[in-house]
Amino acid sequence: MKLVNGYLGQDLQLEGSISSKDSIRIDGSYVGSITSKHMVIVGTSGKVKGQIDAPVIQVDGWVEGDLKATKLVEVLSKARVKGKIITPVGGIKLKIGSVFIGSFIMKKIV
């Protein structure tokens, strides 16, 4: 796994659009779109309102918005997700204790 190079700490609040070639971790509050060429992690204290687009998305915090992954979306036990999850077939993991309100779309990758 690639190291996280972009980080939004617990005491930060940000609004806008983030795009990175590297992995991103959100532990603060963020409103807007997030795009990464590697991985986006929303930590336990992280709150995101907006779309996340990355090969791998891991959520253990709060997200309201669509999650679009080309490989995997992992919703961990403390996660609260409201929105649409779009992944390839077999590209989702929901842990016991997580909350998901929304819809799944699984697409076959050609």
Summarize the model shown.
The chain is mainly beta.
Would you mind describing this structure in some detail?
This protein is an all-beta fold and 110 residues long. Helices cover 0% and strands 66% of the residues. The chain contains no helices and twelve strands.
Shape: globular
Distance between the termini: 24 Å
Order of helices and strands: EEEEEEEEEEEE
**Whole-number tally of structural domains:** 1
Radius of gyration: 13 Å
Strand order of the largest sheet: 4-6-8-10-9-7
Biggest β-sheet description: 6 strands, parallel, barrel
Task: Give the topology, please.
Blueprint: E1 4-8, E2 13-20, E3 23-26, E4 29-36, E5 39-42, E6 47-49, E7 52-59, E8 62-64, E9 67-75, E10 80-88, E11 92-94, E12 99-107
Parallel strand pairs: 1-3, 2-4, 3-5, 4-6, 4-7, 5-7, 6-8, 7-9, 8-10, 9-10, 9-11, 10-12
Supply the key terms.
mainly beta, 6-stranded parallel barrel, 110 residues, 66% strand, 0% helix, single chain
